[in-house]
Amino acid sequence: MNNKDWNKYEETIEQFIQVIAKNMSLYGVTPSIGRLYGVLYFSQEPMTLDDMREALEMSKTSMSTGVRALSDMKMVEPSFKKGVRKDLYKSEEDWYKSFTSLFGSRWRHHTETNIEEADEAIQELLELQEKTTDEDLQAKISEDIDRLEYAQNYY
C-alpha cells in the first residue's frame, strides 16, 4: 500500500467533490449539501447518517437535513442492507439523471416565477396605460407589453 498514492487519490476526489458542491450552489443548493452528495456518490457502500457525519465532520442533524433535501431532489435514495438496523442512503447511480432532475426542477421553478412576474407587470402596465394621458408613454407601454408577452411565450 502506497500512502502517497492514496493521499493523491483522496485529494483528487475531494477536489472533485468541491466542484460538485460549487456547481450545485449555482442552483440554490448549499455547499454542504453539495459536498454530502459528492461523498455519497463516491462511496462504494450505502452510508448511515453517522458515516456521513464522520466523513464531513458535520452534525448528524445537518446530515439528516441534507439527506432529506437530496432525497426530495431525487439525488439520494434509501437503501437496505441485511443486518444493518440504521437507515442507509446511497446516491442515485445515474449522474446525468441526478443533475437533470435537479436542474430541471430549478428551471421549472424559475420559469413559473418569471411567467407570474410578467403577468403582474402586464396588469400594472395596462392599468397605467388606461390612466395616463401621455401618448408617448402609452406607446412605450404597448411596446413593453408586447415584449413581456413574447417573453412569456418563450416559457
From TrEMBL:
<dbReference type="GO" id="GO:0003677">
    <property type="term" value="F:DNA binding"/>
</dbReference>
<dbReference type="InterPro" id="IPR036390">
    <property type="entry name" value="WH_DNA-bd_sf"/>
</dbReference>
<keyword id="KW-0804">Transcription</keyword>
<dbReference type="InterPro" id="IPR052362">
    <property type="entry name" value="HTH-GbsR_regulator"/>
</dbReference>
<dbReference type="InterPro" id="IPR036388">
    <property type="entry name" value="WH-like_DNA-bd_sf"/>
</dbReference>
<keyword id="KW-0805">Transcription regulation</keyword>
<keyword id="KW-0175">Coiled coil</keyword>
<protein>
    <submittedName>
        <fullName>GbsR/MarR family transcriptional regulator</fullName>
    </submittedName>
</protein>
<keyword id="KW-0238">DNA-binding</keyword>
<feature type="coiled-coil region">
    <location>
        <begin position="108"/>
        <end position="135"/>
    </location>
</feature>
<dbReference type="InterPro" id="IPR026282">
    <property type="entry name" value="MJ1563"/>
</dbReference>
